Amino acid sequence: MDDFLAARLHEFDRRSGVPLPGELREQLTELALVSDFAWEVLCGEPALLGVDPSRARRVPPGRSESELRVSLRQWRRREALRLIALDVVRGASVDRVMAATSRVAERGLAAALACAGQELEQRHGLPRNAAGEIQPLAC
Fold first, then answer.
1. Is the dihedral of CA 130, 133, 137, 139 positive or negative?
2. Who contacts 53 (Cβ-Cβ below 8 Å, separation ≥6)?
3. Is 124 exposed, middle or buried (0-12, 13-18, 19+ CB in 10 A)?
4. Which of 3, 49, 67, 74 has a 20 to 30 Å separation from 107 between CA atoms?
5. Per-residue pLDDT for the chain (139 aa), expressed as one digit of tens each?
6. pTM of the prediction?
7. Which residues form the domain of 49?
8. For residue 132, is it within any domain?
9. Domain membership flag for residue 123
10. What's the CA gap between 112 and 98, in Å, rounded?
């Protein structure tokens, strides 16, 4: 286990180009041991290691469906890392982690629905019910 961890930490230092201070190194060690996914995200974006896991990030806007797909995918990876850190590094309760997970899902769905609504509105106008009144795309 020690060789595995030492190799991972060495790889992170090499990939990020910056040796980590003690507290961040401890967090990286914890995450490297429990999640290959978290490890890959952090190696790709080392700056995420210092982000407060208790603070959710907003979904970045996308001007088109393809831009939104890319930004949602990146946001979802970062938020998944945040949730893992909230659980592993902060030792948050199961209730807190599950509530945060639900909020991530709700925000992602809301962003995707808003983008779809804009594209459909441009193509077909506002959605209307049988009486001709404007209605939401989804309830």
1. negative
2. 82, 83, 85, 86, 89, 90
3. exposed
4. 49
5. 688 888 888 888 888 877 777 888 888 888 888 899 998 898 888 888 777 777 888 887 767 778 888 888 999 999 999 999 999 888 899 999 999 999 999 999 988 888 888 888 889 999 999 999 999 888 6
6. 0.77
7. 2-117
8. no
9. no
10. 21
Q: Determine, yes or no, domain membership for 46.
A: yes
Q: Is residue 131 part of a domain?
A: no
Residue 60 contacts residue 39 (beta carbons within 8 Å): no
Residue 56 is predicted with a pLDDT of 80
Sign of CA dihedral 57, 107, 91, 36: negative
Query: What's the one-letter identity of residue 117?
Result: G
C-alpha–C-alpha distance, residues 92 and 67, integer Å: 33
Strand, helix or coil for residue 129:
coil
Tokens of 28: 């990286």
* Phi-psi category of residue 125: left, alpha or beta, with phi > 0 → left and psi -120 to 50 → alpha: left
User: Are 79 and 104 contacting, i.e. CB atoms less than 8 angstroms apart?
Assistant: yes
